[in-house]
Amino acid sequence: MEIIGYAASVLIGVSLGLIGGGGSILTVPVLVYLFGIDALLATEYSLFIVGISSAVGSITYFKKGLVNFKVALIFGIPSIISIFLTRMYLLPLIPEELLSIKGFTVTKNMFLLLIFAFLMILASYKMIKNSTSEEVDGNDLNKNKSLLAAGEGTIVGIVTGLVGAGGGFMIIPALVNLLKIPVKTAIGTSLVIISLNSLIGFSSSINNTKIEWSLLISIAAIDIIGIIIGSQISKKIDGKKLKPAFGWFILVMGIYIITKEIFL
């Protein structure tokens, strides 16, 4: 199962390098179901893996001038604050057993995985729909757009803090549809935001967790190799064409997690 897990880690990286997102949503399920890691600990590991991978992935976009740092700050600062508050105060408030009905118990781990499955289905819908919108410069942010960006950043921060997802499937549509930023710039900016969010989220609770660094670093390294492969493939294949197919794959995974956790 670990060999399959490492193979899946490559695919996560390829997805990030090819279409700028989506792959990180698979990190927690891979850690839980293929590496046998506890769901809560998997969210912690995912933050590190996604953070390092996204940071590496953003370098290419930065070199091409496809990162909007003004937007990254407006979006990122509220996101970082909400991640910190979620990891430090909200997660510890969730009891180990949330609900028990006729022998069926909803545990903290199950709850987190079900949230994750719902987010995967939401992400798959956005990928399959593959909608486009008008693109403009994106540098001229008025007050209303700045508030929208900050609000979206707060929501993404809570999600990232809870389940360890980078949130690219939420960030990119927000940057493109709300702020009218070109898709490639939105991807580069998203990777910067994701890397900051994830690494700060990881560092905020690292002292409370026993980290298996050898496993964590090896998965992150394989992820990075995948990103490099994906970046090379993206020069020959349009990532937009593969996005719907990847969306269907994530949809199937989301349904599998719900089925496994509730019915199996």
Spell out the key features of this protein.
single chain, 264 residues, mainly alpha, two-stranded antiparallel sheet, 10 helices, 75% helix, globular
CA-based gyration radius: 18 Å
DSSP helical segment count = 10
What series of H and E elements makes up the topology?
Answer: HHHHEEHHHHHH
**Per the principal axes of the C-alpha atoms, what is the gross shape?**
globular
Oligomer: single chain
Q: Could you estimate the helical fraction of the residues in percent?
A: over 70%
Mean pLDDT: 81
Structural class: mainly alpha
Strand order of the largest sheet: 1-2
Query: What is the number of strand segments?
Result: 2
Which consecutive residue ranges, at least 5 long each, have pLDDT under 50?
Answer: 132-138
Q: Bin the strand percentage.
A: under 5%
Distance between the termini: 19 Å
Largest sheet: 2 strands, antiparallel
Report on the structure:
The chain is mostly helical and 264 residues long. Helices cover 75% and strands 3% of the residues. The chain has a two-stranded antiparallel sheet with strand order 1-2. The protein starts with a helix and ends with a helix. Mean pLDDT is 81; it is low at 132-138.
Write the layout of secondary structure elements.
Layout: H1 2-19, H2 27-33, H3 39-63, H4 69-93, E1 97-101, E2 104-107, H5 108-129, H6 143-163, H7 168-178, H8 183-204, H9 213-234, H10 239-263
